[in-house]
Specification:
This is histidine kinase. It is found in: Cell membrane. The chain is 46% helix and 23% strand. It has a 5-stranded mixed beta sheet with strand order 4-6-7-9-8. The radius of gyration is 25 Å and the shape is flat. The termini are far apart. Bound molecules: adenosine-5'-diphosphate. Adenosine-5'-diphosphate (ADP) binds next to helix 4 and helix 6. Adenosine-5'-diphosphate binds next to helix 4 and helix 6.
């Protein structure tokens, strides 16, 4: 709290009033602090791949390029790092769009069960690891108003995480439940889990439980922060449940009105 004081003084010199203006600066300071931290995080995240690339490029120009084994391997590293930087910058652009005042989503009516099944199918077709999928989905339509591109991005990110952190032979469970006024969508894995104290932090920008490890897995630390913004823009909530060593469930809700669905159909 900051106070601005003005003394009201008469020409005669007598003080006959005092005006105190109190400003709540804590909120503003918090925002400034967050912004500084954000810029510092972004710089750090960009510097890491850049310095890695510099060392590999140096090694290449000092002769590694002529080595049959090292040449392609080092080029592969620089390419991976470039791709990670592109992902990072794209994520940052997404977040900056969402931070702007006139951020809008383009919702259309979609049968969420069909929409969700399509995304799961795509992962099932292309998965490289031994992970089994279990779908606990209603066998009737559930029409909700969503921005398909944005929600595809959200769900892609959650499923990619579930796959990344799953053990070989693990199971990923997809579920949709209907509640009063909303549906609850959940994706559960049997992976490493998230320590109890970090469960809410994973939705913060750049937060990663294990920096080195997730960087190796190609993450930017922005996926769930973007998901939170996008679900919020749809009028829903997103949260996590997890037991370390046992698994993680990411859940989100979307507004749903079965009566409106009847009108509409
Ligand atoms: P990243 O790009 O690092 O995956 P996210 O925002 O998607 O960023 O996730 C933030 C962090 O939350 C991850 O780095 C990881 O530590 C943790 N996390 C997310 N999903 C899972 C999961 N299914 N199992 C375990 N940890 C997870």
């Amino acid at each position: 709290l900051r106070a601005n004081m003005s003394i009201i003084q008469r020409e005669t010199g007598f003080v006959n009033g005092l005006i105190a203006v109190l400003h709540d600066i804590t909120e503003q300071e918090k925002l400034d602090e967050e912004r500084r931290e954000f810029v510092s995080n972004v710089s750090h995240e960009l510097r890491t791949p850049l310095t890695t690339m510099r060392s590999y490029l140096e090694a290449l120009s000092e002769g590694a390029i002529d080595d049959k084994e090292l040449g392609p391997r080092f080029l592969g590293v620089t390419r991976n790092e470039t791709e990670r930087m592109i992902r990072l910058v794209n994520d940052l652009l997404d977040l900056s769009k969402m931070d702007s005042r006139n951020y809008e989503i383009n919702p259309v009516w979609v049968d969420f069960v069909k929409f969700f099944n399509h995304i799961i199918d795509r992962f099932e077709m292309t998965k490289e690891r031994q992970v089994t999928f279990r779908r606990l989905l209603p066998n009737h339509t559930i029409y909700v108003e969503i921005d398909e591109d944005k929600l595809t991005q959200v769900i892609d990110n959650i499923i990619s995480n579930a796959m990344k952190y799953s053990p070989e032979g693990g199971q990923v469970t997809f579920r949709i439940q209907e509640f009063h006024g909303e549906i609850e969508v959940s994706i559960s894995d049997q992976g490493i889990g998230i320590p109890k104290d970090n469960i809410e932090k994973v939705f913060e920008r750049f937060y990663r439980v294990d920096r080195a490890r997730t960087r190796q897995l190609g993450g930017t630390g922005l996926g769930l922060a973007i998901a939170k913004e996008m679900i919020g823009a749809h009028g829903g909530k997103i949260w996590a449940r997890s037991l370390e060593g046992k698994g993680t469930t990411i859940l989100f809700t979307l507004p749903y009105d079965p009566l409106q669905e009847d009108d509409w159909l």
